[in-house]
Amino acid sequence: MAPPPPPLLLLLIPFLLSLLSNPAIAKTEIQSDGPQGFISAMISEKGLVFVKDLLIQQALSSLTPLHLPKIQKSIKIPFLGGVHVSLSNITLSQINVSSSVIKPGDTGVVIVASGATANMSMDWRYSYSTWLIPVDISDKGRAFIQVEGMEVGITIKMKNQEGSLKLNLSECGCYLKDISITLDGGASWFYQGLVDAFEGQIISAVENAITKKIKEGIVRLDTFLQELPKEVPVDDIAALNVTFMNDPLLRNSSVGFDINGLFTTVPKVATLNYHLTNSQHSAFCKAPLKMLWISLDEAVLNSASDTYFQAGIMTWTVDKVPEQSLLNTAGWKYIVPQLYKKYPNDDMQLNITSTSPPRILVAPDKIGASVTLDMVIEVLDANEIIPVACLSMDISASGFVEISGNNLAGEAGLDDFTLTLKWSKVGNFHMYLVQTVVRVFLKDVALPYVNSHLKKGFPLPIIRGFTLTDASIACTYSRIVVCSDVVFSDSFNVKRLPRKYW
């Protein structure tokens, strides 16, 4: 396995993979030539500035200390002749950046840091001999260098390569305007000779070393991106497909993405077809401007519903309720008389199964869901479980979604339901009485159970170390739009990334 990329490069990943941004500055949907994903996003100008600032902050700590190779040379000094000089332990120890910009465009994403200064130190040594003094004369000491007017620029191209993000460094360069050398010790004649002979060589060595370091880092970042999983595990049953669908869309002040965004089973089964509804949602992130947004089509939620239904886990056996008398035939004595007559005072349980995947509909005023269930009433007679009747329910529910940490969570409430008797071995039911009992069961037992799972939510594709903050949510026709700022944890240990990215 390749070593983990340096911290400064990892900072790009959450913004390339978490697919977050703010659409308040965008007036149109992301348009692409290929198939669109069910999660689309854009990094806003504010988000790009955040990326750039974090990138530069971490770059400074990653680039320093920077050790340069030894330099040695013979120089001519008047009256002394040839003097052999060597510079060693050349170290760039500190860089300060006064201004920086990030700009996406047709050629890629350009990042430029300018007006930077840097501090350097080195050891020097010289030796010479003359015809007057036929022995070697030498001296050594320290020198300190002040770098002025440093400028570093890179241009990165991003492409979709088989569902992963491919980075290409198209341009990279470092320029130093001037350096000032201060000697600790040494004769005056040596200072001018050192400056004249080595100034250009020192500048060139710094420029080449920084450029090389950046190029190596981009290669490592690209390798890291290729190794990122294309699915985010949710649990042992489902995973979120986070493959890229198209090349990133670069605008003057934003970067847009499309990813698949659908849930799949683990292990995989055949993927169902979903319809993608395009809708305008640029007006839903209100001022103040957020760094990031994530836009989810309702197909993402319905794919989760289909995945868990196909896995066969949408079943629930209920043998305990707050009003336990409801799970004894004595409690049904007047509702289903023949049930009590045939199985007097026997305990019961309810075997509830979803007969089709729940359907979810996102609208501006609410998020609705329709669920069809079969509820089989089972009598526990001695050691035998006896199915005695089956009720079919069509349930309409609605609710809201919220951000809980880095998860999309929610809560549901009951709107209405219809109840029919599907079959019975204990005669007819008084359905108007059964409807009252079932309504109490749905509100007091079923919904709290469902909400206990909804409140946990499912993870948004955000790499560890970054957290959504001050998030808001808006709904439009078929889409949920999350608008958020993001914070970075300095305690984040990047060495863990190759083992667990999410």
TrEMBL record:
Superkingdom of origin: Eukaryota
UniProt-listed InterPro entries: Bactericidal_perm-incr_a/b_dom (IPR017943), BPI/LBP (IPR030675), BPI/LBP_pln (IPR045897), Lipid-bd_serum_glycop_C (IPR001124), Lipid-bd_serum_glycop_N (IPR017942)
UniProt keyword annotation of Metal-binding present: no
Keywords (A to Z) from UniProt: Glycoprotein, Signal
Record-annotated Lipid-binding serum glycoprotein N-terminal domain positions: 43-268
Annotated Pfam families: LBP_BPI_CETP, LBP_BPI_CETP_C
Span of domain Lipid-binding serum glycoprotein C-terminal: 286-484
Glycoprotein among keywords: yes
Signal peptide: 1-26
A cellular-component GO term for this protein: extracellular space
Matching SUPFAM superfamilies: Bactericidal permeability-increasing protein, BPI
GO MF term set: lipid binding
Protein name per UniProt: Putative BPI/LBP family protein isoform X1
Species annotation: Cinnamomum micranthum f. kanehirae
